[in-house]
Protein: Anoctamin
Amino acid sequence: PSIEFLELMGVVKENGSDQTPFPPVKIIDEDLVFYGIQAPKEIFDRYRYLLKVSDACNWSSDQNNVSLSTLMKMKIFEAKFCLHEKKKQRELKESWARWTACLQGQPITAVNYFGEKVALYYLWLGWYTYLLIPPAVIGLIVFLYGLAFFNTSPLKEVCESDTVMCPLCDKRCKVWMLSETCTYAKVTLLFDNNGTVLFAMFMAIWEELILQIVNNVNCEPRKYKHSYLRSTLVLICVTIMILVIIGLTHALVVFRVIAAVLLAEGSWEFLSTHSNSGAMMLGALFHYVIIIVMTRKTRSFAETERSFTIKMFTFQFFTYFSSLIYVAFFLGINGHPGGYVRIAGRWRLEECHPSGCLTDLFIQMAIIMVLKQTISNVFEFTGRWFSRWLKRRRTKKLQRKCGHCYHKDDTMDSGSELCESCKLRDWLSNYRLNDVDSFSLFNEFLEMIQFSFTTIFVAAFPLAPLLALLNNIIEIRLDAIKMVTLERRLVPKKTNDIVWIDVLEAIGVLAVIANGLVIGVSSDFIPRLVYRYLYGPCANGTATDTCMEGYINNTLSIAYVNDQNIHNEFSASQMETPSGMNASYCYKDHRNDEDYSLTPQFWLILAVRFAFVILFEHVLVICKFIAAWFIPSAPMEVKNDKLFDKLNRLKEEL
Structure:
């Protein structure tokens, strides 16, 4: 039986109406007993009116349905669901739930068949997808803009260098030539270039457009009850879960370090040579597994949707971004030759490539985003399809509708009667569909965690909006086909806003902070800027080619073989080159060649980094405030529709 129908009886009785629902219909089919409850059209009209004028914007029809829920927990009832309307299903298949409609807008009026909450979600998702087109194009341009730097001095210095670098790991790793990383340096330039700064600023302002259609409309909610005991327990549980996730992040760091050592000491020459890259890839896959496991385990925390939203966002954020935060801001802090930072005094921490750590962040985000979107969509759709197929296999084949009911099905209203045989056929077909609940739509919102990837750390991954755009085009059709053909009908619910509005605004703030730190702290944008204007050939008047000539050598420090600490750190076999033993080797850092102390240039770059972050964030916050003021909080059409609807209801009452 439909939740709405059960609620209607209570509403009618309370208001003293003389309309009575049709008596429940009981149909027995072998081991299944169906009870169908239907109400006259007048009751639906009254129900819709009460929903429209109600001030309880977050009212849910589940709340007064205690007795049926109790019976379901006792296994007396197996399922409860609204019946699909065949005519509406066909309309939705033609206008929405088909692949040929990929490039069309969302038929919101038709989607309202599932309720305001679903319609508003797809309205936002369609608007979000539409607005992904500009950042997708600009991000691709920024990515390809890096090709213009392939013939510049810094890249040539790497590709044509004869500099010998210190070993990247203990025991098996040997010294290596800087020119071996030419391809890696080219990849880095594709996203770590001057266009990245402007793109990050554009994305911060772009978020205000995304929030335009979901901003909250004024509404007086019903009162909530507060329990200090429950709040304390929730706080403890949330703290424990966050600590678990932080612990998993530390485990991921240890995993990458140990994996790099094991790969370097392995018998496969290819993996031994590329141990750091292999460890990075394995770390990204391990991080993806953590995401899958942790997002499954945290789904038991909900009693109300808004409370569930805040908790899930907290867990999702820490799960998705804890490892990325490590790669972006802490990877590469590993000391210097003769004084490396080690875990438990044994395993040496990873160090960044001479071109910077941003490529590691780029690769990790790409792996997680592609795997999450691809695998989630495949499993979600095929799982629903297989479940429906399995139910069909377990139950007998449905008989065809009789000619009378078949003709009636095309023209009838939802309240028209079918014969008992055809009614059983209709109920069985709905019963075989996959179950839905109050959080089915929430799970769809949860998949839009990709919004975080298109904003947070977008400076390191300018292709994120393009991947999100392609995913959304497919995601909308998959969800439409799933909701119309594979799932039971959602109970239509009223809403005035999207429950994720606060989360989206929080992501906007975090994106400004994260991108400022990525550009200022993680990328080589600031060191290149400082070198160009203070240390480069243009600054001292010795320029013969470009202002960046000599930049790579300026970022390297020297370690001498006669230093006892170097002898303790590396074996003689590790330090040998094809031409014999060198007197000195290089590593990336700004340190004194004699005592490894940090140079004044290091402290100057650090000061400029933080100054840039503060300036970047303040400028973007001002731009966001201006954009929020300039762009209306809700579309004028929506505001005017509400205004005239309110006026019409007032005239009707008068």
